[in-house]
Write a structure and sequence with these properties.
The complex is a heterodimer of chains A (about 325) and B (about 150). With about 325 residues, chain A is an alpha+beta fold. Helix content of chain A is about 25%, strand content about 20%. In chain A, the strands form three sheets. Chain A has a five-stranded antiparallel β-sheet. In chain A, strands 9-10-11-12 form a four-stranded antiparallel β-sheet, with helices on both faces. In chain A, helix 4 runs antiparallel to helix 7, helix 9 runs antiparallel to helix 10 and helix 10 runs antiparallel to helix 11. The longest helix of chain A has 18 residues. Chain A is globular and about 60 Å long. The N and C termini of chain A lie far apart (about 55 Å). By secondary structure, chain B is α+β, with helices and mostly antiparallel strands. Chain B folds into two domains: about 70 residues, Ubiquitin-like (UB roll) (Roll); about 70 residues, DNA polymerase, domain 1 (Orthogonal Bundle). Helices cover about 35% and strands about 15% of the residues of chain B. In chain B, strands 4-3-5 form a three-stranded antiparallel β-sheet, with helices on one face. Chain B has a two-stranded antiparallel sheet with strand order 1-2. In chain B, helix 3 runs parallel beside helix 5. Chain B is globular and about 45 Å long. Chain B starts with a strand and ends with a helix. Classes of the chains: A alpha+beta (about 325), B alpha+beta (about 150).
């Protein structure tokens, strides 16, 4: 690891005054610094900042420094969020990683992590070996000729389904951004991954109240049963009344360059009978606009099935 | 920079670069070699120690950001009396080469203390290259039943 300067501000104002790369749990930053993918000269250890707390009184407010394990174990959290967290990484990583850090984690694309390879995300204009492959783990939605890397977070998929917002504070004050807009698809600028301005800090994640999200789940399909990134995942919440879908939220992971909200699937579900046939018809819309690569066309079959499985899981007991 | 660490009940001081991991501080500077360096990338779990009573990967933790007490496998036993989880690993032959065992035991202690439902799922962040998994699960279950009778 290259030498760097480390400071530990104790107030948000001090943190904004001191420029540097933000370090919370370190599960992304320390890893990528060891690989030379990230080489910051100044690092801000923000663990002393007062960005803690989980408030479930009206929706959900999550301090950016809350750890994944603590949020997953909180009794007032929507099931889709706790399920997504508990199916992420390992228990050690969930103990370490903060929610703000989880949302800011970088892609696990092999070429991004290897500084000896070209990568448009790491080094703009250098090229993208993943476009030609191997690319079994890569994205089929939101891709461009410059980048096909997936976004690796599970909980971000659940949060996007629930219309979560990220609260940021920076030199020009505080603002809120819908998480779905916070992430940028790669387009011509894959190195610009987030709507975050220089010097800004994530302070809080806010999930609007949605009472029927008590009926929600996260299904994650992996190459092994545990401690693995998603091939496909589905975050769903379903409001079923008298056997008919009154409302639905659906988002997918493992398939998009960003957490992928599926509004067309939601629209097809509304008013449909809560049964496997209509779930399959709606889920078939999930792959609209998908661009499979040489090794990952299977995701076009797997994604609708994953969504149907999640919808059936939340339909048991709610009928 | 000056770094203070509470390790296994002792307060330790060291002068180290900010990039020194907790794992390297323990092994190379303090001579505490229970935590093992397997992958050094946060993937294998051999370096698992407790910080503030919770299992973390010491290879991805900078020593300089640790505020709370650290416990390594060396801090579990009381003299020659093994911790119940250590005894269970010995009783169940829950290891072959033993390299991953200190990390396995630190995760297993938390599995027992927090009463997890699914032992295999909870222990999935500790890789055993010898594949001693069936006996590791038995060791956790032995320690858990012993714990329940206390």
């Amino acid at each position: 690891m290259r030498p760097f300067e480390l400071t530990a501000p104790t107030t948000v104002d001090d943190a904004l005054d001191a420029s540097g790369t933000v370090l919370a749990g370190g599960t992304t930053l320390v890893d990528l610094m060891k690989l030379d993918v990230l080489t910051p000269q100044r690092v801000l250890d923000i663990n002393d900042l007062p960005l803690r707390g989980i408030d479930t009184r009206d929706g959900l407010r999550i301090g950016a420094l809350e750890r994944m394990a603590d949020l997953a174990a909180h009794p007032g959290v929507y099931p889709v969020i706790s399920r997504a967290l508990l199916l992420s990484a390992s228990q050690q990583l969930r103990t370490m990683a903060s929610i703000g850090g989880n949302l800011m984690q970088r892609t696990r694309c092999t070429w991004f992590r290897d500084v000896n390879s070209p990568c448009n995300r790491r080094e703009p204009g250098s090229g993208c070996p993943a476009v030609t492959g191997p690319n079994r783990m890569h994205a089929v939605l939101g891709t461009s000729e410059h980048c096909v890397a997936t976004h690796a977070s599970d909980v971000a998929v659940a949060l996007v389904a629930l219309d979560a917002e990220v609260r940021l504070t920076g030199p020009d004050g505080a603002r809120s951004v819908p998480l779905a807009e916070f992430y940028r698809t790669p387009g011509d600028t894959p190195h610009r991954e987030h709507d975050i301005r220089p010097g800004e800090l994530i302070t809080e994640v806010v999930v609007p109240r949605l009472d029927w999200a008590a009926n929600s789940t996260y299904v994650k399909v992996r190459d092994r049963q545990s401690y693995e990134f998603a091939l496909c995942s589905a975050a769903v919440a379903l409001d079923v009344r008298d056997g008919v879908v009154a409302d639905a939220r659906v988002a997918a992971g493992g398939v998009g360059t960003v957490p992928w909200r599926l509004r067309s699937v939601e629209a097809a579900l509304r008013g449909a009978p809560a049964d496997e046939e209509s779930f399959a018809a709606a889920a078939a819309l999930a792959t609209e606009g998908a661009a499979p690569l040489a090794d990952n066309a299977f995701k076009l079959t797997l994604l609708p099935r994953t969504i149907v499985r999640a919808l059936l899981d939340v339909t048991e007991g709610s009928r | 920079m000056d770094i203070s660490l509470g390790v296994n009940g002792h307060l330790e001081h060291l002068d180290a670069e900010p990039g020194v991991t907790l794992l390297d501080a323990l092994r190379e500077r303090l001579g505490i070699t229970g935590p093992k360096k397997g992958c050094d990338r946060g993937q294998c779990g051999a370096c698992t120690v407790h910080v503030d009573g919770k299992p973390v990967l010491s290879c991805l933790t900078l020593a300089a950001i640790v505020r709370a007490p650290v416990t390594t496998v060396e801090g579990l036993s009381d003299g020659d009396d093994l911790h119940p989880v250590q005894q269970a690993f010995a009783d169940q032959d829950a290891l072959q080469c033993g390299f991953c065992t200190p990390g396995q035991i630190m995760s297993a202690v938390t599995a027992v203390e927090s009463g997890v439902d699914d032992v295999r799922e909870f222990m999935s962040g500790n890789i055993c290259r010898c594949s001693a998994y069936p006996n590791i699960v038995r060791a956790v279950e032995q320690a858990r039943s012993a714990d329940a009778t206390v």
